[in-house]
From TrEMBL:
Monomer. It comes from Pontixanthobacter aquaemixtae. Belongs to the QueA family. This is S-adenosylmethionine:tRNA ribosyltransferase-isomerase. The keyword Cytoplasm applies. InterPro entries: QueA (IPR003699), QueA_dom1 (IPR042118), QueA_dom2 (IPR042119), QueA_sf (IPR036100). The lineage of its organism: Bacteria, Pseudomonadati, Pseudomonadota, Alphaproteobacteria, Sphingomonadales. Its EC number is 2.4.99.17. Pfam families: Queuosine_synth. It is an enzyme of class 2 (transferase). Pathway: tRNA modification; tRNA-queuosine biosynthesis.
Length: 342
């Protein structure tokens, strides 16, 4: 399909630079089948779900994955993208023309990394020196990797350390937050439990590739970056049992959805999973594992705009986004939410 089919015009003032407080006071656009759109709040979620519905969250934790350093006199920026092993990360590099294989980059707090390999997409494998866990090095030398549409408008600050982390975060490794879950608070979780809504978690370490623009003119020519994910056998069993009982599985965020769809077999049975996935969901995809999605509003011509169009239909999503813009919903990572039930 032509990538231009997923374009739309977004007023810049609708890009949220900070989340609302409390988190669950964000607005939520509800699109359920062909019913009229409903303007709700995230705090209304319990009343919009049925007892027995299962919300699936991503428990990945965002690490301070952006680093600014030097190789000699040259400034080198690195955004870690994907863990390779205990000391090696694949990274997108700014000013990459000044970095060659074998060079050492000096980051703050005496953190050093060797440019070990260059990949076809221009990224590098960086091997961090020393014996300390890389996560500890990043806590000293790195900063939170805010999306470009926020970082380009204001600097990262202390608030982002908590704002850009979900209350489910426990597994270090993400370079981007699973932002749909940023809206959840302990009070909202308690209300969902009282409603009889179940919760499950999985892990998908979101990479920086999620922010890369689709440069191809046709979706067939776009290559997704791989991300590592895990679904425990017990989690898969409970999700399959819920669906057998006629209950809905609703992914909280496109990351949860992509991993569930990666793990589901042809019969819609969710299998245990511990591997990379580079699944690219576009219109025509047959959804096998999910019955709905809670997600924020996505960039024009992005892979995530293609995903929600696959779930709901392209024309339906164009209508939903036109409604959201007209009603001045806040867009992107720190913005408002939507509940999509095909």
């Amino acid at each position: 399909m032509k990538v231009d089919l997923f374009d739309f015009d977004l007023p810049q003032e609708l890009i949220a630079l900070r989340p609302v407080s409390p988190r669950d006071s964000a607005r939520m656009l509800v699109a359920c089948g062909d019913e009229p759109f409903a303007d709700k709040s995230v705090s209304d979620l319990p009343s919009l779900l049925q007892p027995g519905d299962v919300l699936v969250f991503n428990d990945t934790r965002v690490i301070p994955a952006q680093l600014d350093g030097r190789r000699g006199e040259a400034k080198i920026g690195a955004t870690l993208h994907k863990r390779i092993d205990l000391r090696r990360w694949q990274a997108f590099v700014r000013n990459a023309k000044r970095l060659k294989i074998g060079n050492v980059v000096e980051f703050p707090a005496q953190v050093r990394a060797l440019a070990e390999t260059r990949h076809e997409d221009g990224s590098f494998t960086l091997k961090f020196e020393g014996e300390e866990p890389v996560e500890l090095l990043l806590e000293r030398a790195g900063r939170m990797p805010l999306p470009p549409y926020i970082a380009g408008k204001r600097p990262t600050d202390e608030r982002d350390k908590s704002d850009y982390q979900t209350i489910f975060a426990r597994e270090d490794g993400a370079v981007a937050a699973p932002t749909a879950a940023l809206h959840f608070t302990p009070q909202l979780l308690e209300a969902l439990s009282e409603r009889g809504v179940q919760r499950e978690t999985l892990t998908l370490h979101v990479g920086a590739g999620t922010f890369l623009p689709v440069k191809a003119d046709d979706t067939d020519d776009h290559q997704m970056h791989a991300e590592w994910g895990r679904i425990e056998p017990e989690t898969a069993d409970r999700l399959n049992a819920a669906r057998r009982n006629g209950n809905r599985v609703i992914a909280v965020g496109t990351t949860s959805l992509r991993l569930l769809e990666s793990a589901a077999d042809e019969d819609g049975i969710i299998q245990p999973f511990a591997d990379d996935t580079s699944i690219f969901i576009t219109p025509g995809h047959r959804f096998r594992a999910v019955d709905g999605l809670m997600t924020n509003f996505h960039l024009p011509k992005s892979t995530l705009m293609m995903l929600v169009s696959a779930l709901m239909g392209r024309e339906r999503m164009q209508e939903a986004y036109a409604h959201a813009i007209a009603q001045k919903y806040r867009f992107y990572s720190y913005g408002d939410s939507s509940l999509l039930i095909p």
